[in-house]
Model the fold of this input.
Amino acid sequence: MSVPWWAWLALTAAIAAMLAVDLLLHRDDHVIGLREAATWSAIWIAAGLAFGVLLWLWQGDEAAGAYFAGYLIEKALSVDNVFVFALVFSYFAVPAAYQHKVLFWGVVGALLFRFVFILLGAELLETFFWTAYVFGAFLVWTGWKMAFRHDAEADPERNVVVRLVRRLVPTDARYHGSRFFTRIDGRRTATLLFIVLVAVEATDLVFAVDSVAAILAITTSTFIVWTANAFAVLGLRSLYFCLAGLLRRFVHLHYGLAFLLAFAGVKLVLSETPVGKLPIPLTLGVIVATLAVSIGWSLVATRGAADTGSRTPTGT
Done:
């Protein structure tokens, strides 16, 4: 799929404008309530769906189908991001009023990292056919790990990037309002909130590799892969505040996500065999059915639980 330069420019401008509006409207530090989070989630989802419709009108069924398949995968994997963000915020006892700022800049970093991964991954798949087998095996292995090692405890302080930043950058183990940096004894010092941001960015790197590889299994069009990632990630902050109190109900969702990652891996491998690429309608059907079954299974299994929905974002 050939995309003119002006389409990339228009997309970049639109994403920058949406981020600017979001930052302007949330420039004051306040706790994000469920109603506000739900409203913003609806706005971001509507924007993602609207872009898919525009892509369908512009490039046709195949391009739009690939976009929606990628968007659904990234949106589903975002739920697992929410689990990790909740862990990081709880571990560092981040005040609820500062969580949105961390997530905002975390999303900006996530968009940049994904853009780089998409360009590299697409180039590798186009240049070296055997990288499809490597990426496919990686996705199958990641799916297996997600299915059977999903409950493994994670310690943000043991993250290599977090430890490296603590060594290289003078830090203070306290919060100084919503500032990432402050001055202590005349020296510019990183606050604990900056360490939280680093932890969020570092953990998201793992999800970025998984999600980008999964969407590249559907299409190698960098424009489609990038837009699917971008529109799904833009709503990650509001998704967190919507779902943080309901995470305990999604007890079986990780099995569905694991299956989708493994399915994407197999699909990528098959694309370099006589079988060829699986049809987009089939891929979309598998994604929708898997998510419906795993979410429905989770909700039925947790129906009537005494503490259902009792957990809320840290500090709320």
Q: What stands out?
A: The first helix runs from residue 5 to 25.
